[in-house]
């Protein structure tokens, strides 16, 4: 039905943008492709990136798949209890890291503590929505790529995978842990094994440090290491690790906020630009969704743009196509782009700021390639700079934003623009 509406209307059917003139229709409510990419009129790019965002994401970001009988031995018990299976599993990992990689007690405490954070040190921990699995939550298909491959759902299998990666594809994590204290060991594993930014709140640095200190004490991890990442003694089995992105790019609910709900505008709005392309006769690539509030002024509360998630500001800059824009790394590891602000000053947050879902961050505007006042919203699950046609990791905002008007989404995240229908963000519940 949405498709039919769109056909009947055509792109230029309704002029809500105000500034639309003949010959400029293709710029309607516009465009953020990339400065490198030309606007490809009439070319229909089809990107099918299906990201499974479920409504019922577990608050801890993983499930244990034993309930489904899906395989594997869940490792239970209190990790501090030396008789528990979980304690034994952690001891096994510690011994392997010590004997095969010559990691120090401090290095190992960091790795085990992060394993507790990621999966409660359970090899059967899975997050079906994010396609991640295991002790350190490896990508297992879907948008995360597949680092996990055919690894067994066992502590032995997964520790072997970690060792293989630490001596090949992720050797930087290992080399950075050489002679490192606890804080640096945690940084090294999170940045170079998990792929997190040092400042990412998802790391929970304070909590993970306390956990690592406890792990060190409980397992008596008080020995020096002698890591040599180029050491021929290191047994990597001659294999290279599987390709795929890091495990923490999963779209999962960290429990910090409702990251799959919330919209970048409040009150009455229209969707004036679709995804992946503009609709109707232009068909130009677009790779975001344009939100335009009814009043669409450039100042005042009606122009306010809000963060759709808790996160950290990572980019704030002017550009030729997107105008003044801000990128926020959401707590689930995704990147959200808000474009066309009237000025850099009208983006009221700065790089490094931590923001909350629903926080006022910017204003609608029409800088860059825009002919009407709106905010361009884009979402990338891999890259804070990738917003152009060929960028990897771009996904449909409609798939990510739980409260996006579903009638504009005919299939697989494709979004039709709709100049005539007014939606109301304030009528939508903003809960999880
Ligand atoms: Zn746009």
From TrEMBL:
<dbReference type="GO" id="GO:0004222">
    <property type="term" value="F:metalloendopeptidase activity"/>
</dbReference>
<feature type="domain" description="M23ase beta-sheet core">
    <location>
        <begin position="285"/>
        <end position="383"/>
    </location>
</feature>
<feature type="domain" description="Phage tail lysozyme">
    <location>
        <begin position="89"/>
        <end position="219"/>
    </location>
</feature>
<keyword id="KW-0812">Transmembrane</keyword>
<protein>
    <submittedName>
        <fullName>Putative peptidase</fullName>
    </submittedName>
</protein>
<keyword id="KW-1133">Transmembrane helix</keyword>
<dbReference type="Pfam" id="PF18013">
    <property type="entry name" value="Phage_lysozyme2"/>
</dbReference>
<dbReference type="InterPro" id="IPR050570">
    <property type="entry name" value="Cell_wall_metabolism_enzyme"/>
</dbReference>
<dbReference type="Pfam" id="PF01551">
    <property type="entry name" value="Peptidase_M23"/>
</dbReference>
<feature type="transmembrane region" description="Helical">
    <location>
        <begin position="28"/>
        <end position="53"/>
    </location>
</feature>
<dbReference type="InterPro" id="IPR023346">
    <property type="entry name" value="Lysozyme-like_dom_sf"/>
</dbReference>
<dbReference type="InterPro" id="IPR011055">
    <property type="entry name" value="Dup_hybrid_motif"/>
</dbReference>
<dbReference type="InterPro" id="IPR041219">
    <property type="entry name" value="Phage_lysozyme2"/>
</dbReference>
<dbReference type="InterPro" id="IPR016047">
    <property type="entry name" value="M23ase_b-sheet_dom"/>
</dbReference>
<keyword id="KW-0472">Membrane</keyword>
């Amino acid at each position: 039905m949405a498709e039919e509406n769109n056909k009947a209307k055509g792109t230029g059917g309704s002029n809500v943008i105000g500034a639309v003139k003949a010959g400029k229709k293709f710029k309607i409510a516009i465009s953020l492709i990339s400065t490198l990419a030309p606007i490809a009129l009439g070319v229909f790019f089809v990107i099918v990136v299906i990201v499974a965002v479920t409504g019922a994401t577990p608050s801890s970001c993983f499930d244990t798949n034993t309930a489904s009988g899906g395989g594997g031995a869940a490792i239970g018990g209190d990790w501090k209890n030396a008789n528990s299976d979980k304690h034994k599993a952690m001891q096994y990992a510690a011994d392997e890291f010590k004997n095969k990689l010559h990691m120090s007690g401090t290095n190992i405490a960091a790795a085990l503590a992060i394993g507790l954070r990621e999966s409660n040190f359970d090899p059967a921990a899975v997050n079906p929505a994010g396609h991640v699995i295991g002790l350190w939550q490896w990508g297992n298909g879907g948008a995360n790529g597949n680092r996990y491959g055919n690894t067994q759902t066992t502590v032995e299998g997964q520790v072997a995978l970690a060792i293989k990666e630490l001596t090949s594809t992720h050797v930087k994590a290992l080399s950075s842990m050489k002679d490192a204290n606890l804080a640096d060991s945690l940084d090294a594993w999170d940045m170079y094994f998990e792929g997190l930014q040092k400042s990412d709140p998802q790391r929970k640095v304070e909590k993970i440090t306390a956990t690592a200190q406890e792990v060190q004490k409980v397992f008596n991890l008080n020995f020096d290491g002698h890591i040599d990442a180029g050491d021929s003694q290191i047994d990597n089995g001659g294999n290279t690790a599987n390709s795929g992105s890091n495990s923490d790019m999963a779209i999962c609910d960290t429990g910090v906020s409702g990251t799959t709900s919330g919209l970048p505008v409040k009150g009455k709005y229209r969707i004036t630009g679709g995804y992946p392309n503009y609709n109707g006769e232009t068909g130009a690539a677009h790779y975001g969704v344009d939100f335009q509030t009814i009043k669409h002024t450039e100042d005042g509360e009606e122009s306010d743009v809000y963060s759709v998630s808790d996160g950290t500001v990572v980019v704030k800059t002017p550009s030729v196509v997107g105008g003044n824009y801000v990128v926020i790394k959401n707590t689930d590891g995704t990147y959200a782009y808000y474009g066309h602000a009237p000025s850099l000053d009208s983006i009221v947050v700065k790089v490094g700021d931590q923001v909350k879902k629903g926080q006022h961050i910017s204003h609608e505007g029409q800088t860059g390639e825009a002919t009407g006042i709106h905010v361009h919203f884009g979402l990338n699950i891999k890259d804070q700079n990738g917003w152009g046609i060929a960028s990897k990791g771009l996904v449909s905002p409609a798939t990510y934003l739980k409260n996006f008007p579903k009638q504009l989404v005919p299939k697989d995240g494709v979004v039709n623009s709709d100049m005539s229908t007014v939606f109301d963000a304030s009528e939508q519940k903003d809960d999880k």
